[in-house]
Amino acid sequence: MKIIYTNNKNKFFIWGLAIMCVVSLGIFMQGCSQEDDWLESSINQHEEYLTVSNFDSKTVFSGQEKTVLKEAMNRVKWATYYGKNGFVVTKTASELNMDEGIYNVMKDIVLLANDQNLSIKPRLKPDNNEFGADVNPCDLVQSQINDYLYSHPGGAFSSDCFNHYWEGSATPLILTSDRFSDIRNYAAEYKATNIATFNSGGQTYYQGQVSFYGTPYELSFGTATITYNSQGQPVGIQDTYNFDARNDRDLQSEIKTEAVNIAGTLCGAHSYYISYGTIFPSK
Fold first, then answer.
1. Domain check: are 105 and 36 in the same one?
2. Both 1 and 108 in a single domain?
3. Are residues 92 and 32 both part of a single domain?
């Protein structure tokens, strides 16, 4: 009887253990299923198909179009993970319900993180309606452009100009006398084109466009309007800073310029006015 009783206890123990394993596995599978369900619903809740007319050729976007682009960025961020091989977007344009062209640009922006040597811990569970690696596209692109500018002559000033544009305040930038003294070295009168004449205070001035390509100010101005006195000495400068990556062939070879320009739209970058000294309205 004792042996039979012991065997029965062992049977009950084994059956109990088996039941616990099944229940535990069920809970685990349910948890995985719930997480997968959440992942799927976080994508499928966006029923609107995201598209912008003439997206590939457009440079200025309406308020509604900017809203579409921001939503596209959010969806791509939701589908971005950080693993042992870096950042990866795990969903296609079709799965995220958006235009392929918009998807590719947003993906390019997010994956700039792989060039930044970032170390971001993955988020495997829902957190504030997002999952995966939380990257800031504005910081990514700004850092990428600054790295590029600093690798060229005049990089510190070029970077200052770019950052003022990227921050979006649109406040005018008045150059210092020291800065203009250096700019004068690259703005000889013979370089000026489209010259106009102005008279002020009994003095005659000449104003024209000067190209700064091939100088340390190439990435700051490109071209700018320079004012000369009657002796042909530079006495003023004015320019509107509006960064457009497509105008720089070197930059195009290093960075996907469409991603930079779209990121500027998303991040609120804004053109601004640069000036110093004696200037006149363009005729």
1. no
2. no
3. no
Tell me whether residue 207 is in a domain. yes
Quote the crossing angle between the two packed helices 63-78 and 2-44, to the nearest 10°: 160
Beta strands 223-228 and 234-241, pairing class: antiparallel
Beta strands 193-200 and 203-211, pairing class: antiparallel
**Whether the model pTM is above 0.70:** yes
Query: 183 and 251 share a domain?
Result: yes
Query: Considering its fold, how many domains does the chain have in total?
Result: 3
pLDDT in the model for residue 9? 46
The first and second tokens of residue 99, run together, are: 């235009």
For residue 30, give its domain range.
1-45
- Residue 205 to residue 164: CA distance in whole angstroms: 30
pLDDT in tens, 192-201: 999 999 999 9
CA distance linking residue 141 with residue 115, whole number of Å: 10
Segment 6-17 mean pLDDT: 48
For 62-84, how does the pLDDT look when each residue is reduced to its tens digit (9 = 90+)?
999 999 999 999 899 888 887 77
What DSSP element (H or E) covers 259?
Answer: helix 257-267
For residues 175 and 228, membership in a common domain is answered with yes
Beta strand ranges found along the chain (DSSP E)? 80-83, 86-89, 173-174, 193-200, 203-211, 223-228, 234-241, 272-277
Find the range with the poorest average confidence among 21-30, 82-91, 198-207. 21-30
In this prediction, what percent of the chain has a pLDDT beyond 70?
A: 72
Smallest CA-to-CA distance from 263 within 181, 153, 151, 142 is with: 142
- The pLDDT of residue 99 is above 90: yes
Tokens for 40, please give them: 């799927």
Query: Which of 135, 164, 198 finishes a domain?
Result: 135
**One domain, residues 182 and 89:** no
51 within some domain: no
Task: State the pLDDT at residue 252.
Answer: 53
3 state SS of 277: strand
